[in-house]
Amino acid sequence: MRLKLRTIFATVTVLSTLGVGCILSMLAMQSTIKGLQDFSRQITLEKGNAGIRSIELLLSESEDILQTMADYIERRHQAPEILDLIPRFWLDYQHNFKNKGAMVYIEAGTGKGVACDINNNTKIIRQLDDESFEIVDSNTGVSQPIPDFRSLPFFRSGMATRKPGWTQFYAFNNKLNGQNFRGITKFIPVKDPLNKDRFIGMLGLDINMEWVSEYLKNSLAKSPVRSIAFVLERRRNGLFNLIADTEHSLNESGLDLDGDGYVDPDELGDEIMSATKMVIPKELTNDNESQVYHDTISTKQGTFYATFLCPFPGQPPHWILCFLASE
Question: Which domains are delineated in the chain?
């Protein structure tokens, strides 16, 4: 009887120890999981905030520099050498825009103008005797035929609204940004200072999305967990347009079948991106909404913690920066 009691006591002691050990292990595991989840959330928030600041800075600077240029042109638009002065002015102020965008100024009446391409090479835009247009490299003298810049989205939008604004995302085809590049254009109508109802020209600043993709890739290069980042544009029709991504190359013409700058995220067949798109709230780009939104994305490839940020909620361009980190 005494032996049985000892055996029972020993068994109970062992089971109790194992039970306590299991509980402690579970608590430790839960603590580890929570720690990893918090770490993933910290990564998405830190990377997201850094990315959104870079985008906001570029967009804000583009508005400031174009307005400064518009004021300069209005004061000196009657000067015969104005088309020579504009590139010099641009090169003095464009320090943050090299390899990110191109500048163009087009006269409203003639369609003539001047531009600096994405590499800051000066281009002259002139009309030929047959009323067609060409763009000439001022360094090499090489010319190429181009459409009338007054038919492009930035010029038409500026003339229609009669005020500064942003175009919708589109495919650049103006010989200034490189082949198959996409982006948006900030535009500012230039007015006659003596008659504010008369437009004398249009300033445009193209912002190329290739630099955004490269920035996102570099920011995630040393991430200790699997991390993904991409930028979506919410179009006026409610559809999402994929404009930058760390997982896919988007500068191939085959992705943009219609040549209008639209890439359907679902066409890539990416489960994570499709799942992410489904949880983005419609209110995220509306007025007076929070700039930051968080959610958890469950996929066959694992669970990801997602942070969504908007550069300027309720204002164009309606972009959503998405950062995901594996939990």
Answer: 40-56+211-326 (3.30.450), 57-208 (3.30.450.20)
Residue owning tokens 């402690």? 24
228 burial via Cβ count (<10 Å: 0-12, 13-18, 19+): buried
pLDDT at 126: 93
Give the span between the Cα atoms of 45 and 155, in whole angstroms: 38
Contact 208, 177 (CB under 8 A): yes
First to last CA, the chain: 54
Residue range 272-315, pLDDT digits in tens: 888 888 888 776 655 545 567 888 888 888 888 888 888 776 67
What backbone torsions phi and psi does residue 255 show, to the nearest 5 degrees?
A: -75, -35
The residue behind tokens 């100024």 is 105
CB 177 within 8 A of CB 117: yes
- Give residues with Cβ within 8 angstroms of 9, minimum separation 6: none
Dist. CA 72–CA 188, nearest whole Å: 13
Beta strands in the chain (DSSP E): 101-107, 113-116, 122-127, 133-137, 143-146, 165-166, 170-171, 182-192, 195-208, 227-234, 240-245, 292-299, 302-309, 319-326
* pLDDT single digits (tens) 239-277: 888 888 888 876 554 455 455 678 888 888 888 888 888
Residue 11 tokens, joined = 């068994």
Taking alpha carbons only, the member of 160, 119, 128 closest to residue 146 is 128
**Strand (E) or helix (H) holding 249:** none
User: What is the Cα–Cα distance from 106 to 108, expressed in whole angstroms?
Assistant: 6
Average pLDDT of span 170-179: 72
Task: Give me 275's structure tokens.
Answer: 């799942």
- Give the type of residue at 34: K
125 neighbors 133 (Cβ within 8 angstroms): yes
pTM over 0.85: no
Contact 44, 324 (CB under 8 A): yes
Using DSSP bridges, classify how beta strands 165-166 and 133-137 pair: parallel, antiparallel or unpaired.
unpaired
